[in-house]
Specification:
Elements: H1 2-32, H2 35-38, E1 52-58, E2 64-80, E3 85-92, E4 99-104, E5 108-115, E6 120-129, E7 134-144, E8 154-158, E9 163-167, E10 171-174, E11 178-183, E12 186-196, E13 208-210, H3 212-252
Parallel strand pairs: 10-13
Antiparallel strand pairs: 1-2, 2-3, 2-12, 4-5, 5-6, 6-7, 7-8, 7-9, 10-12, 11-12
Helix pairs in contact: 1-3
Bound molecules: 2-acetamido-2-deoxy-beta-D-glucopyranose (11 copies).
One 2-acetamido-2-deoxy-beta-D-glucopyranose is lined by residues 77-79, 86, 185.
């Protein structure tokens, strides 16, 4: 009798923590995302979460060779003439007014994003390493003439970066916000990234490899789920032992 009744219990013991884990992960994710909009300490207007752009670069023979879907936020530090002080400007890249172009070479892929009527140019250079079977963001630069600078145009460039590392043949994915520090005066916040700078075939992303940040984010609900599974097992065991005892008790009477 106990063994027959054990099947649904065993099923629940496995499924309940999984359902709870999935639910908890959802709630963690929704709690974690709106925080940037709530920071009031910033001296400047908070632009909120940037819209996700779908940027792609097309080859000379009309095939897509680079795909980058991501939300971008620029954090620029400069000496403002109008305000007569050093300011930190946080601006979102608006996909609907941004034009993507670039080039794809054997070991080097370039994504160029132009906005503000071409007065702002943001460039990403990806490099591949066939020895290690990886690619990464190796260079980023920004030039813009829309800010009110003492020194003229703002420009920042770093050619020795090592961000957004992916595996050749796969796309790189990172749902969590990341900060790419380019120079002392420029950092780029990325949101909801999926990109592939090499080996795009059929105009579509290859299978995605998730970044470490996302994996860590997944770990919390897994640990919570495992703890809950343990708890359910303990309760279940206590219940079954209790039942067996009382059952045995009836038989002796
Ligand atoms: C043209 O497209 C093919 C894939 O369809 C690619 O292998 C080749 O490198 C492309 N050639 C140029 C010049 O872009
Ligand atoms: C912008 O960068 C500064 C440091 O340079 C940092 O204190 C600030 O939190 C950053 N803001 C955002 C929204 O990333
Ligand atoms: C960037 O920062 C450095 C010092 O950290 C400063 O000397 C330089 O003028 C800054 N450049 C711009 C364009 O703001
Ligand atoms: C602002 O100007 C001062 C000197 O006038 C300089 O030392 C400083 O590096 C500049 N900061 C930036 C962010 O350009
Ligand atoms: C800018 O600020 C400095 C002090 O921070 C002051 O000495 C200078 O006169 C100011 N310049 C202008 C044009 O307001
Ligand atoms: C672009 O999108 C933003 C909202 O994300 C909107 O405020 C703006 O009006 C749009 N601009 C154009 C030219 O469509
Ligand atoms: C911006 O540059 C692109 C070429 O990269 C060109 O097609 C476009 O017409 C330019 N837009 C303006 C407003 O100059
Ligand atoms: C600033 O950039 C604009 C293009 O956006 C260019 O025409 C101008 O010459 C630049 N000025 C300086 C001082 O570099
Ligand atoms: C490519 O990767 C290999 C192995 O990780 C490394 O030894 C080599 O220095 C890398 N090459 C470049 C150009 O980064
Ligand atoms: C460029 O990036 C590297 C790695 O993040 C950093 O060590 C270096 O200081 C940066 N260079 C400049 C000019 O900011
Ligand atoms: C390229 O980008 C446009 C949006 O700018 C998008 O509609 C299109 O689907 C993209 N192409 C591919 C192959 O993803």
């Amino acid at each position: 009798m106990i063994s027959a009744g054990g099947q649904p219990w065993r099923w629940m013991g496995v499924m309940l923590p999984l359902i709870l884990a999935a639910f908890l992960h959802q709630s963690f994710a929704t709690v974690a995302t709106p925080t940037p909009a709530q920071t009031t300490a910033a001296p400047h207007k908070d632009p909120g979460r940037p819209d996700r752009g779908k940027y792609n670069v097309t080859n000379s023979n009309n095939t897509v060779c680079l795909l980058a879907y991501m939300g971008l936020q620029l954090n620029i530090t400069y000496n403002s003439t109008s305000q007569n002080k050093t300011v930190q400007e946080v601006v979102n890249v608006q996909p609907n007014v941004t034009l993507a172009s670039g080039s794809c070479e054997a070991d080097r892929a370039v994504l160029e994003l132009k906005t503000d009527a071409n007065k702002t140019v943001l460039t990403f250079v990806f490099t591949q390493n066939t020895t290690s079977g990886t690619y990464h963001l190796s260079e980023a630069s920004l030039t813009t003439s829309v800010l009110n600078l003492k020194e003229g145009n703002f420009s920042a460039k770093n050619s020795s970066l090592d961000f957004l590392q992916g595996s050749l043949g796969y796309s790189y994915m990172c749902r969590m916000e990341q900060t790419l520090t380019v120079t002392q005066n420029l950092s780029i916040n990325t949101f909801q990234v999926q990109l592939q700078p090499f080996g795009v075939s059929g105009n579509a992303f290859g299978a995605a490899v998730e970044c470490q940040l996302d994996e860590d984010d997944m770990l919390i609900p897994i640990i919570v789920g495992a703890a809950l599974a343990g708890l359910v097992l303990v309760v279940l065991l206590a219940y079954l032992i209790g039942r067996k005892r009382s059952h045995a008790g009836y038989q002796t009477i």
